Structure formats: structure tokens, C-alpha cells
Amino acid sequence: MAFRLAPSAAMAGYRLEAHESVGSTNALALEHARAGDDGDLWVVSSQQVSGRGRRGREWTTPPGNLAATLLSVGRFEPGTAATLGFVAGLALSDALFAVVPDKRIAVAADGGDLPRGRFELKWPNDVLAEGAKLSGILLESALLPDGRFAIAVGIGVNVVSYPEEVPYPATSLRELGFKGNADDLFLALSDAWVDNSRLWNAGHGLKAIRERWLTRAAGLGSQVSIRVDGRVARGTFETIDEACRFVIREADGSLLRIAAGDVHFGAVASERTD
């Protein structure tokens, strides 16, 4: 692999640390932050052997796939820093549009029939293609001794292969006809990150990020289910609010705002409770 930063990323001051194999790009990025790195560092590998997904789930990266982490360091409020996940989703979808320009993908998760575009963003942190998971995004953080906040924005993409023994549909770019490799995708991702992070502007541009994210949201207006506060809430996916919480309208007309959880779309929303 020969990972390269896009010229726009290099000009904006981003740096690159590339590996053939790592345990976890997120863990390595946070190690650098604790050692004094000021951020704007991409830690990238085509193989990750001990990566994690949300809620401690395993996320391995077999050779040829992409594991990329952007380290950001600053005096963020934790809630503001958490919205970098939406920046990551937009940047990755922009990169996918760039490297797979002719692929028509109309999608919803969990078997729903909700054609909206080539790639879709599933709240809070997945990218879908043809109803299957293509990528996952994981944010991890550390409070540094000087009071600054370090955020590792981890992005894992199934470029050449995808996990088969998982409880959800999954796919890879190769399965979709992509002839390139992880290097090509990362080049496009590092370029797209520059524009989207500038739009985010340390949280000052969150309104624009939210509006842009909603144009690519999977399942908007559809029936959904999500476990929250010890029960399974069901309703219609209305929007994400100003804090990027998931908002559903329940059967009684009330709006429920959810900060974290696993969303299920489509017909199975009335049945899935896991």
C-alpha cells in the first residue's frame, strides 16, 4: 500500500502516518495525543487486527480494507466533539461518490425499500450501500493533562472484503464493482475531510453539517425501532435535531429524541428488539 494525502489536505496542514498493519488506528492516534501530538494527524492502515466498533463490538480490518483515524486535538466541549462523527460520514460519502462515480445504489437498512441515492448515512455512524453496511465510524476521546480534548475519529471501510458472520447485511466496494484500492479511497477521503471539517468549523457550522447530512440520511420518513430506556420505541424517523439526536414521532404523535442507540428500519422495525 502507498497511502498519500490529497494535496488539499497537505496544504491545510494535515499529516499522515501509514502502516501496513496495526492493532487499532484509534488507539495509536490517542497514544500520539497523550505523547503531545497537536492533532490533524491521519493514522492509516490496510490491516487492523484489534479494532473496535460501537459498544465494544469487534471491528477487524482484513488486508486490503481501510482503517483510517483522524486525530483532532482542541478545547472542544464533549458534545460538540461528538458531532465530528457526522463530519466523518459526510466526508466518507463524498469520497465514495468520487471513487465510485457510476455506481447507482438505492438503499435502506434491514430490507426496507427506500431509494434515495448512491450511498446513504445511517444514524449515527454507518455508511450503507444496497441496504448493507459498507463502513463504520467510531469516535473515541481522551482528556489531556493540559485540559485539551483529543478525539480519534476512526473510519473503517470494507474495500475488498466484508464480514459474513454478522447479524446484519454487509458488503464491500469490490462487491459493488470498485476496481481501485484502499489507497485510492483514502486519497479521496483526506480531500473530502478538508471541506467538511471547514464547514463544521469547530462546531460553529453544525447547522450546515446537519442539513447536509439529512440529504443523505437512510430511512428518513420511514418506520423505525430503537431500544431506549429499557423499552423498544417505534415510530417515524422525522429528522435529527440541532444536537444531532435521532428524532422519531411515536404513534401518539409525541416526538422522542435519542442520543444513542441502534436503529432498525423498514418492515422489521415492528419486530426487531435487539
Mean pLDDT across the residues is 87
Q: How would a textbook summarize the main sheet?
A: 7 strands, mixed
Query: Which class best fits the helix and strand makeup?
Result: alpha+beta
SS elements, strand count = 12
Radius of gyration from the alpha-carbon trace, in angstroms: 18 Å
CATH architecture of the largest domain: 2-Layer Sandwich
- Assign an overall shape: globular
Distinct helical segment count: 6
Sequence stretches where pLDDT stays below 50 over 5 or more residues? 104-117, 269-274
- Helical amount: 10-25%
Distance between the termini: 38 Å
Strand content: 25-35%
CATH fold title of the largest domain: BirA Bifunctional Protein, domain 2
Elements, N to C (H/E) = HEHEEHHEEEEHHEEEEE
| Strand order within the widest beta sheet | 1-2-3-7-6-5-4
Any idea how many domains?
2
CATH class category of the largest domain = Alpha Beta
What's the CATH H-level superfamily name of the largest domain? Bira Bifunctional Protein, Domain 2
Explain what this protein looks like in three dimensions.
By secondary structure, this protein is an alpha+beta fold. A seven-stranded mixed β-sheet has the order 1-2-3-7-6-5-4, sandwiched between helices. Strands 11-10-9-8-12 form a five-stranded antiparallel β-sheet, with no helix packed on it. The chain has two domains: 7-214, BirA Bifunctional Protein, domain 2 (2-Layer Sandwich), CATH 3.30.930.10; 223-270, SH3 type barrels (Roll). Strand 6 (132-143) and strand 7 (149-157) form a beta hairpin. 23% of the residues lie in helices and 27% in strands.
